[in-house]
Amino acid sequence: MAVVTEFQKIGVGLMGFGLFFLLFGVLLYFDSVLLAFGNILFLSGLTFIIGLRRTAHFFFQRHKFRGSFFFLGGVSLVLCRWPIIGMLVESYGFVLLFRSFFPMAVGFVLSALNIPYLSTYFSSSSSMV
Question: Record's InterPro entries (predicted)?
Answer without folding.
Answer: Got1, Vesicle_transpt_Got1/SFT2
